[in-house]
Structure formats: C-alpha cells, structure tokens
Design brief:
Layout: H1 3-9, E1 36-45, E2 52-58, E3 63-69, E4 77-82, E5 90-94, E6 103-109, E7 122-129, E8 135-143, H2 150-153, E9 169-177, E10 194-203, E11 212-218, E12 221-228, E13 237-245, E14 252-258, E15 270-274, E16 278-285, H3 286-303, H4 311-328, E17 343-351, E18 376-380, H5 385-388, H6 401-410, E19 421-422, E20 428-430, E21 455-456, E22 462-465, H7 483-492, E23 519-524, E24 536-541, E25 551-553, E26 557-561, E27 566-568, H8 580-583, E28 588-594, E29 597-603, H9 606-613, E30 623-628, E31 658-661, E32 665-667, E33 670-678, E34 691-695, E35 701-706, E36 712-718, E37 723-728, E38 734-740
Parallel strand pairs: 16-17, 16-18, 20-25, 23-30, 31-38
Antiparallel strand pairs: 1-8, 2-7, 3-6, 3-8, 4-5, 4-7, 9-10, 10-13, 11-12, 11-14, 14-15, 19-22, 21-22, 23-27, 24-26, 24-28, 28-29, 31-33, 32-33, 33-36, 34-35, 34-37, 37-38
C-alpha cells in the first residue's frame, strides 16, 4: 500500500507535504504505527538551499527514510537539518551510492547519532545535490521501522519510474471509423453516413482505477453519458464509442472521463477534436514510449506543462500547439480567420525498438509509408531519445517545434531558409557596382565600402540576405506562421493529403511557381518620386547549386530599361525553368542605377506568389510592384505588392457557400436550368472575383465566369443537367457539388 493510500484508508489529518521554494510546509501528524509522508514522486534538488526545503516539519516518528532515484553510483547528495532552512548546519545523511537499479534507500535514526534529538521538534529538512550537481529524490517519510522498508510502504515503487503510486486516467486519442485512404475513391465519408468515434482511455498510473464515468459532447452539448463497468489495471486500455452522422460542417467533439479515485493528474481526463480535421498517425518505438511515460510528469512540473504524464499527453500537446498556430495566423485581407487547417491524432502505434521505418524510408519522416489512412505520419525511434528529449531544459520534451516544422513539409510547406544567404556559406556574389568595384567583399563582408554588406540576422547568425517570412518554416526558433505560410496552408485547408502523407510529398513547394503572367517593377527614389534621367535595372540570376547555396555573377545578368521608372520583368524572372525545386531556391539580385544612384537588393519569389494568389493571374492584370530605394533594409528589396484583386485567397468555405440547380425554365423557345452559386468564407464574408468553372459529371464545361461583389454567380445550363460540379479555380480548384434544389418540375412557361 502506498503512502497516499495510507493517508486515504486511515483517514489521517496529514497530507503529503509539497513545498516550492521557502513556502511553509504542512506539519504532518500521524498516530504511531503509520507513516508520516514528506513527499512521493521524483523531485530534482540542486545544490542550494532553495530547491527542496521542508521547513517547520515535526517528525512524529523516530526513523527518517530517504529514497533516491538517480544515476547508478551517484553519491553526491545529502539531506541537511536545522532549526531553519537558512541554518541547516548538520547533515542527516549523504554519500550513499545509488544502486544499479537507480534507487537507494537511506534510514536515519532521529534520536541518536547526532548532537541532539531531532524527533518531535519543528525543523527544516533540506534535500540537496552535491558539488554543484543536482540529485533526484523519489520519496521521503518518517515511521518507526529502523531498517529500509520502502518496498513495504511504496509497493513496486521501482517499477513506477519515479512517479507517484496512483492511478491516472488518460484520454489518449479518438479514432474514427471507417477510415479512407487519402488517395482512394472515395477518400471522405458521404454526408449523412454514420461514423463511429472510438475514444481510447488508458490508465497511465501504477495502481488500478475503479469503474469510471464518461460523457460525449458535441459543440458543448451533452450527447451521451455512461460508466465503464470494470476496473482498469495499470497501463491497461479501454475503448468507448459514439456513432454520429457525417456532415461537412466543422464540429467540436469532446470526450471526458471522471473517477473518484485519486489520480496523478486530471488535466488529461478529456480530449477535444475537430471532426473535420486532417489526421495524424504516429508510430513510436517501445523504449521511447516508456521514456515519455517515465519522465513527462517530473519534467512538466518544472516546465509549465503540468498534467502531462505520458507519451500520448506529450503528443496531444504538440497537436494543440500546432492548431493554436493555425488559429493565431490571422492577417487582415489575407487570412482574417487564420489557417483553416486543423489536425487531430487518429492513430498511435507502439512498435518494437529498432523496427522503424516499417516500409522503408526514414524512421521519423516516413515510419509507415504504406499506410494511406492518415494525412500525416511521423515516427519516434528509441535510439538516443534521452538526448533528443532532454530533461534539464525547456525544449522538445515540452514543444517539439522541429517536429512541427517537418510535419509542415508533409503538408507541402518548403524550407524558407533556403533563400537565406549566410556570410559563412559557400554562396558566391561576384558582381560589380556601377563604378566597377566589387559590390561585395567576402573577405570583409561588413566593410563600410561594400555596396552589399553583411548583418546580424534574427536568429543570431550573420547573413547577406535573410528570408522575409522568418517564421517556423524559416527557423525552429519561431513559433508562428507568417501571412505567406498561412496562405500556403490555406491552399489545401482541411483537404486530405494529395500525393504523400510523409516528408516530403510530391507537391512540396509546388506553389512557388505561382507567378503573375506579367510583372512590372516601379522604382521610386528616396523621396518617394519616380526616377528621373536614364535609369536601369540589372537582374542578376541565381545559378547556385546545392540546397541552400546561391551564386551571382556579372555575366549571368540582364539589363532592363524602362519608362518613367517602370520596368517589365522577364516572363520567368527567377529562371526556375518550370522546376519547383529551383522556384523554391532561386533569389534575384537587383541593381538600380540612375544619376547619383547605385543600389543593390535581393528579392525572393514570395511577394510574387502572393500577388498571383490575390488575383494577378493573367496578362491583362499586370502585377505592379513598388521598390522604394529608401525602404531597402538588410539588403532586402521589401517590395510593396499591388492591391489585392481577390479578397481572402483560399478562404472559400464549403459549408457557408451554396450552389444549386433550379427547375427547368423556358425562354425564347429554349429550355434551360439556372445554376446559382454564392461563395462565402467561414464568417459569411462574400468571396468576390473568383473564377468559376461549372462542369457536368463527365468533366465537360457547362459555364464559366467570376463571382460578383456579393459572391454570387449564375449561369444557364441545359435542362437535361441535374447534377454538376462547381470548380472555384481561384481557390486552388476548390469544388462544390451541385444538384437540383427540388425534384424535377414541369417547365415554367411564364419565363
């Protein structure tokens, strides 16, 4: 029976003492023959008097038991005693080596062996490391047994990996049946189809949990309650199901459990998912899985994620952080409602050590590449897991931004740091200024005489150019998505994976090629006026070879002459040649010369991509970018994009939008039906100037046009057509199914 159990079953007035810093502790009181607990569960104590003090503690019992859980052989520890925590002058015990099991128990007789009797007096018991190092203590208590008895007081404590001997109900994930392959036909349920949601509940603690209650909620409204009738053993799993009809609308489904048994944590007793979210499957090797179970609780007590007691808790925290990034990526005019994507965990599979990847590929990026039932997959091998997920500092054991970065690749996002040009990279800038001198000196990159000078980047490095987005796809030191990345994610929204659910799919970076058909550069001087006199713009093309290597030479360039300070760029300004790899790599180095002016700046394709997505898709709508010479900063052109022609790119909502085919009508001896379309975003904002193509089931075009300011579009089609598809070309070919608004009717001859 555990100490916590003794407190409960014997109804003692004492509680397990737990203090932070110098906060006063509760004085434990217990009748003879029981146990007076100080604490249970790993706590790391540094070599200072403020980490683990227990002030004003009165030992009712004679023997003081100290249980360590640390590295085998460690003996740099000690427990000190004094009238106050600032005057703990005597060492009660220390220097006993930790056994090979990682545990050791020391017993102190409080009545003898010291200069005074420590029993029955209010004293400070101070747990410390030694020689500047920290030590981990698992438990401490007082009783009347003079020999080690932790196995009696704390049964099987060595099997708990440093955790308190309590049960812990944990809602680990919710799976949905049936599943569909992302590349299957169909790959989504049909509207109205009954789906089964299966909640997985585990007991992550070392004690059984008795029968527990559960409930399902949809959008906060109670749907179903029940009781799991049997006790759930330590590390046992239960599943509970709910059947709901499928709808395209987004709903928040919640599952919660409650028990009267004491638990390690209650923060993991419920889970919320978005029913329309894309799915993540995770494969984890056994030793990595048990490592997370052993250390998440202790780590999170110090790192602000209390309530996380398992690998599953850690994984759900990653998904919550990712979904919060989607929600927070709200940018007026572009993504005012954030990123439409939501992710939920649909599958967690524990596999033997050394077995990943299961189908070839990479253990982390493609653990089970033949599983097409999920939209994203990731794996965690056991090798070096303690190094990658360290316990002594904030990092991936709390939020693994590097993993979220890589999962972004599986969602087609590309590395934006490829556009960076670090000072110490093998990149080459061999161009000359108008005066004939080198524009950049790699031997003196910060030289005052350089036309192109290095600078300190936002992530601590030194660069000649740094990508303008500087978000999670630029550096794992960032925990946000820029407007650009948010738009890229909204191109897919909650659509299923297209051509791969692992890193990297075939559509990674395919959007870099979205360049306006005609691009014009308007150059303004430092006063904001058009250039006067003879002015030219020289374009230096990027011929770098390698993932992040750039190369610019004087010979590989083109000179543009313009009129009134406006210059038309070539059709393929970045010389990608149709390659998505080059499109997501190549920079453009611009030199502007005019009387008294010679300025250089770098430009990446992102601004041109955004212009394309905001409506500049054809030659009759040239994208005019403004380069203000006084706005050049850190060698970045910082172009001003043209005003958007289309509001909220990729924001059309399939739920808030509508498309119908009306009854047969007659006009001028012709019989027809009217297709009526209205496009809105998730907030009901009209989606205007969207290019629409309406096709029949065979793919033949029936009509095409653009939506009006109120998001509406109407077209006549043959009366024989009763079903069609609306293709929102502007919204990355988002499709809406359209059918008769009512059953077929007689021809209305009044029209």
């Amino acid at each position: 029976m555990s100490m916590r159990s003794l407190v409960l079953y014997f109804c003692l007035p004492a509680i397990a003492l737990s203090t932070a810093g110098n906060a006063p502790a509760v004085v434990a009181q217990a009748p003879q023959g029981t146990v007076q607990a100080l604490f249970e569960g790993d706590r790391t104590c540094g070599d200072n008097p403020t980490d683990c003090p227990f002030p004003s503690t009165t030992a009712i019992h004679r023997y003081f038991h100290i249980v360590l859980h640390d590295a085998p052989g460690d003996k740099n520890w000690g427990v000190w005693v004094g009238a106050t925590c600032a005057a703990t002058t005597e060492e009660a015990y220390g220097a006993l080596p930790v056994r090979a099991s990682g545990f050791v128990e020391a017993v102190v007789d409080l009545q003898s062996g010291h200069s005074q009797n420590w029993q029955g007096k209010p004293l400070c018991f101070l747990f410390r490391g030694g020689f500047g190092q920290a030590s981990t203590y698992y438990a401490s208590y007082f009783d009347d047994t003079g020999s080690p008895d932790a196995q009696t007081v704390l049964p099987n404590y060595e099997l708990l990996d440093g955790r308190v001997d309590l049960a812990d109900l944990d809602v680990t994930y919710i799976h949905r049946d049936p599943t569909y392959a992302y590349d299957g036909t169909p790959n989504v349920p049909s509207v109205g189809q009954n789906l089964t949601y299966v909640a997985h509940v585990m007991n992550q603690g070392g004690r059984p949990v008795s029968a527990f209650q559960y409930r399902w909620l949809l959008d906060g409204k109670l749907l179903q309650t029940g009781q799991y009738p049997a006790a759930l053993p330590p590390f046992g799993e239960a599943t509970l199901s709910l059947t709901l009809p499928w709808t395209m609308a987004d709903h928040r489904l919640s599952f919660q459990v409650t028990t009267e048994d004491p638990e390690l944590a209650t923060g993991n007793n419920g889970l919320n998912i978005d029913t329309n979210a894309i799915t993540l499957g995770f494969w984890v090797e056994r030793s990595a899985y048990t490592y997370f179970r052993a250390y998440q609780q202790r780590y999170c007590q110090l790192q602000g994620c209390t309530g996380s007691d398992s690998f599953e808790d850690w994984l759900q925290r990653q998904v919550r952080a990712w979904n919060e990034m989607f929600r927070q990526a709200r940018y007026p005019g572009l993504t005012p409602n954030g990123v439409a994507t939501r992710v939920r965990v649909d599958k967690i599979t524990v596999v033997p050590d050394g077995s990943l990847p299961l189908d070839g590929g990479i253990a982390s990026d493609s653990p089970k590449r033949q599983d097409h039932s999920v939209d994203l997959e990731w794996g965690l091998p056991s090798k070096d897991v303690s190094l990658g997920y360290a316990l002594n500092s904030p990092g991936p054991f709390r939020i693994d931004w590097a993993m979220l970065h890589e999962l972004g690749h599986a969602r087609s996002l590309a590395d934006l740091y490829r556009f960076d040009l670090p000072v110490d990279s093998p990149s080459q800038i061999d161009v000359r200024s108008a005066g004939g001198t080198p524009a950049y000196n790699p031997l003196d990159p910060f030289g005052i005489g350089n036309s192109i000078r290095g600078f300190a980047g936002s992530d601590g490095g030194t660069l000649v150019y740094q990508n303008v987005e500087r978000d999670l796809m630029s550096c794992v030191c960032a925990d946000f998505y820029s407007p650009y990345t948010a738009l890229v994610l909204n191109r897919l929204g909650n659509r299923r994976a297209l051509c791969g659910n692992f890193n990297a799919p075939c559509n990674i970076g395919d959007w870099f090629a979205d360049i306006p058909a005609r691009n014009v550069l308007r150059v303004l001087d430092a006063a904001g006026k058009k250039l006067t006199g003879t002015a030219t713009v020289r374009l230096f093309y990027d011929s770098g070879v390698g993932y992040g290597t750039h190369r610019f030479t004087q010979s590989d360039s083109t000179v543009l002459t313009g009129r009134a300070g406006e210059f038309t760029l070539p059709l393929d300004p970045f010389r990608s040649g149709g390659s998505s790899d080059r499109a997501g790599h190549n920079l453009l180095l611009l030199e502007v010369t005019a009387p008294g002016i010679d300025r250089f700046c770098f430009q990446e394709p992102t601004d041109l991509n955004v212009a394309y997505w905001t409506g500049y898709v054809d030659a009759i709508h040239p994208a005019v970018f403004t380069l203000r010479l006084n706005h050049i900063w850190q060698n970045s052109c910082r172009l001003v994009r043209p005003p958007a022609l289309v509001n909220e790119p990729f924001a059309t909502s399939t739920v808030r939008s509508s498309a119908t085919i009306g009854p047969a009508l007659r006009a001028a001896r012709a019989v027809y039906r009217l297709v009526a379309v209205r496009l809105c975003d998730s907030s009901g904002v009209a989606m205007h100037d969207r290019l629409l193509v309406i096709r029949d089931k065979a793919g033949h075009t029936l009509a095409r046009g653009t939506t009006a300011r109120d998001g509406s579009f109407a077209a006549r089609i043959a009366s024989s057509i009763q079903a069609a598809v609306v293709d929102d070309v502007t919204d990355n070919h988002l499709t809406l199914a359209v059918g008769l608004v009512t059953p077929p009717q007689k021809v209305d001859r009044r029209r």
